[in-house]
Amino acid sequence: MVVKRKISILLALIFSVAIFGGCSKISSAKTLKDKKVINIGIAQIIEHPALDLAKKGFVDRLAEKGFKDGENIKIDFQNAQGDMATIQTITQNFVAQRSDIIYAIATPSVQAAFNATKKIPIVMTAITDPVESGVVKSLDKSGTNVAGTSDKISIEENFKLIKEILPGKKTIGILYNTSEKNSEIQVREAEEKAKEFGFKIIKKGITNVNDIHQSLASILNQIDIMFIPTDNTVASSMPFISNECNKKNIPIIGSEKAHVEGGALATSGIDYYKLGKESADVAIEIINGKNPKDMKVKFMKETKLSINPEVAKKLNIKIPQDIEDKAEKIKGGKK
């Protein structure tokens, strides 16, 4: 009798777990959709214009779609100021506070969030290669709790741009943070593509923003052009980098519009404000019940050609008319 009673209790427990456990999975999406206030934690690795725009586009798009901070959503924005340990703490705190969604801006933020939770939906953005970074299983179907947008740029398009506006220039310098997976991927691709274009790459790795001054000085006398990848640490120091390069008459080709606003000559890059909006659309799909693991990684379909006529004049560079006609012109950091 005792054995039978124990078996009955065990079966009842298993049945209850099956019923209520299954229901919890079904209701989680409904709970998120029907919640009066949805808690969204935003984790940003560092402050610089491109990532700031990715945040602004995200928040603006949510508001456009009826999700307004202080009303039906509550946004907790945290910036790690470039510190890898801090971004881990930020994402761990979001998990402890039971955020409903984490919006992770840039590769280090996404990786930190993914390390912190495999349950809370993570909307990623400004990440170059989410598969190689280990946060999704494939581009066609995430397979994890991470979904969102990639800021992968076309190295080839920027190298074509160099050929068109800087003919005869052969030696390209690249400054990048060795701790950022996104930068490592871009540098590797640049080295591969350089062979096709007849370019020579001189790369210089840094570990934090304090290394930039010395590392930049060590390569300026060896290069014709500086190429800036979508590196968060380097991007945060664009005004300094552009000033030093301009002193040596070395043009900079950037990877995003914000680089041109910061003093680069030109770029064929993406619009991070639009990228943020695309990311918000992903968040809204998740709020409405879509599972991140079933979602594709989204990419920007078009690049934006931007030039800085003031920099061109300063460096005595003539921009071909066809490029000038179709490019967005940046003056003094603005259109």
Automatic annotation (TrEMBL):
InterPro entries from the UniProt entry: ABC_transpt-TYRBP-like, Peripla_BP_I
Coiled-coil boundaries: none
Pfam families reported for this sequence: ABC_sub_bind (PF04392)
Matches recorded under PANTHER family: ABC TRANSPORTER, SUBSTRATE-BINDING LIPOPROTEIN, ABC TRANSPORTER, SUBSTRATE-BINDING LIPOPROTEIN-RELATED
PROSITE patterns in the record: PROKAR_LIPOPROTEIN
Organism (species): Clostridium botulinum (strain Langeland / NCTC 10281 / Type F)
Protein name in the entry: Putative ABC transporter, substrate-binding protein
